[in-house]
Amino acid sequence: MKTQIKIASFCLLWMAALSCSQQKESEAPQLVLTDPSPAKGEKGWVISRLELSQLTEIPNGHLPYVADENGKALPSQTDDIDGDGTWDELAALISFDQDSHKSIYIHFATPDAYPNFPRRSNIRFALKENGTYNELTQHVLPDDHTKASPSMDYQMEGPAWENDLIGYRMYFDPRNGYDIFGKISTDMVMDKVGINEDYHKMQSWGMDVLKVGNSLGAGAIALYHNENYVRLGKVDKQSYRFITEGPVRAIFDLQYEGWDIGDEKIDLVRRIEIWAGSYAYNSYVTLRGEKEKYALVTGIVNMKSDQMTHSAWDNGWQAISTFDYQTENPDGEELLGMAVLYRDQEYIEHGELPDKGADIVETYYVTLQATPGVPVLFAFASGWEVQSEQFKSNEGFLEMLKNEGNKLVRPSL
After folding, report:
1. Which of 109, 192, 286, 409 has its CA 20 to 30 A from that of 333?
2. Are residues 255 and 286 located together in one domain of the fold?
3. Which of 343, 341, 342, 302 lies closest to 323 in space, CA to CA?
4. Burial group, residue 292, by CB count within 10 angstroms (0-12, 13-18, 19+)
5. Coil, strand or helix: which one is 77?
């Protein structure tokens, strides 16, 4: 999430060491972050290159990273968001320990001296060619590729993304469905998932835990338009672009051109982001069309759950969630919690779609106001009882959900 920067406290003790690959603590710019909604564990923080350059000089050929008051480097990465070969944002993971303020220090290092952090986020989108799955960084969906008649052999049917806790995937075809990989390993495993194994059965890393059907699954999208729910399906052009992955977060874009919603065609970009240490992935959905407002819809499959919980917190976020025996493990169903988190400012309504007789069925949904050109932010979270004792009860799942809601409120200067 991009951070709106207000300089509340900035102490610059900058000596003549800019030419060095790293600075001493007394020479590093100090920033005081304010966290209005403290969460347990690490919290993501982002500052743009432009914003950082307004606070301090960025040495040529150096990359920034974050350290604490003791000089310990905190998980950091620089991300080239627009793909021009130059980093645009610095992202870091910071623990506030329930405090509302935290001092951090900005250090700079040459690429070869940059701290080495374990990779805790990963994207995998691969196409089988000449017997081998080769990873894609950009790709356009062929017009003739469908689930029923595939012309492409995609590993896991489309892009998959993971962190040290959870994994997700989407079907890169006109279904545009979203699914969950329950993980029991903190390793980055998606590069090999689905190769000489059946991920619908338990593996050493975990398994695909969800059946999606014709629902909105794990956060697929639609529009409510002219009193109809219009699924995001076949479009004139559907494409994928890899952006970044690393120790802090992973990001990629899905672009849809020419989505026919009945009386017009609109374009849409969905940016998907997952942070290390989170059970959720974030979506930034930007529409472009002729109207001033649209009603964006997302949701949760309720094929095996008949009760939805609505939560609202005092941090500007709400959620709809389910918790039930709703996994697809052939060895026996297990408890699984799922949720959509969304902002108060965009919320219109939530409800339930029919079990049959419609294009989108078996779904608890939430409708969000979308203004063309302005990203709508929502998150999808899940918790599987095999992953953690916390997810053996709805109370434990809701506790995690509230914490994820607090994580979505980013710290600022």
Report:
1. 192
2. yes
3. 302
4. exposed
5. strand
- Do 320 and 284 share a domain, yes or no? yes
Burial class (CB in 10 A: 0-12, 13-18, 19+), 323: buried
Q: Dump pLDDT digits (tens) for 124-176.
A: 999 999 999 999 999 999 999 999 889 999 999 999 999 999 999 999 999 99
Residue entry with tokens 């090999």: 192
| Token reading at 239 | 């494409």
Q: Which two tokens stand for residue 379?
A: 């998150």
Torsion of CA 150, 153, 159, 160, to 10 degrees: 120
Closest CA to 228 of 267, 181, 261: 261
Cβ neighbours of residue 267 closer than 8 Å, sequence gap 6 or more: 255, 256, 257, 258, 259, 287, 288, 289
Residues 84 and 181 grouped into a single domain:
no
Q: Using a pLDDT cut of 70, give the percent of the chain over it.
A: 93
> Do 250 and 278 belong to one domain?
yes
Q: Could you list the residue range(s) of the whole structural domain that residue 392 is in? A: 121-407
Residue 98 clears pLDDT 80, i.e. is over it: no
Closest residue by Cα to residue 273 from 148, 363, 162: 162
**Domain harbouring 58, CATH code:** 2.60.40
Of 349, 401, 361, 363, residue with least CA distance to 379: 401
* Residue among 227, 230, 364 at smallest CA distance from 287: 230
Q: Are 92 and 75 in contact (CB under 8 A)?
A: yes
The structure tokens listed for 82 are: 């627009």
Do 81 and 167 lie in one domain? The reply is no
Q: Is residue 4 part of a domain?
A: no
Q: How confident is the model at residue 6 (pLDDT cuts 50, 70, 90)?
A: very low
> Residue 64 — pLDDT band, cuts 50, 70, 90?
very high
Distance (Å, rounded) from C-alpha 132 to C-alpha 347?
Answer: 45
Q: How many domains does the chain have?
A: 2
- Residues 68 and 198 both lie in one domain: no
Residues 216, 82 share a domain? no
Taken in order 342, 164, 275, 178, is the CA torsion positive or negative?
Answer: negative
The yes-or-no verdict on residue 120 having pLDDT over 60 is yes
For residue 250, report the phi and psi dihedrals to the nearest 5 degrees.
Answer: -130, 145
Query: Is residue 318 located within the same domain as residue 169?
Result: yes
pLDDT at residue 25 in the model: 52
